[in-house]
Prior knowledge:
This protein has 111 residues and is mostly helical. The chain contains five helices and no strands.
Amino acid sequence: MNLNNKNIQWLWLIALLVFPFLLWAAPAGTMDDTGIIFCPSRLWFDFECLGCGMTRAVMHFHHLDFENAIYYNYGVVVIYPALVIIWCYWVYNAAIQVGLIKSNITRQGEA
C-alpha cells in the first residue's frame, strides 16, 4: 500500500487517534474466556508461551485494571508502555505527513 497519498495519510491518522477510544469503549473483559484459542503453541502443543494472555493483559492495562493485567501476563508492564511509545511515534509521523506538524528534518533523497 502506498501511504504517500494525502487522503490515505489522513485516514491513517484518524484511525490511530480513534482506535484507543474504541478499546476504552469496549469492556475490559471483552477478551476474557471467549473459549477461542488463537495461540499456536496452545492450539498445537498445549503449551503456554511467554505471550499467552498478552491480549487480555493489554486490554485490562488499557482500562487501568493493573491487578488483572498482571494476572494474565506480567510482561504487560513492559509491552504496554512500548506499545504506547510506538503509537505516539506513528501519530507524530502521520501528523507530519498530513502537514499538521512541520518537520525541519529532511529525508534522504529530498532537498
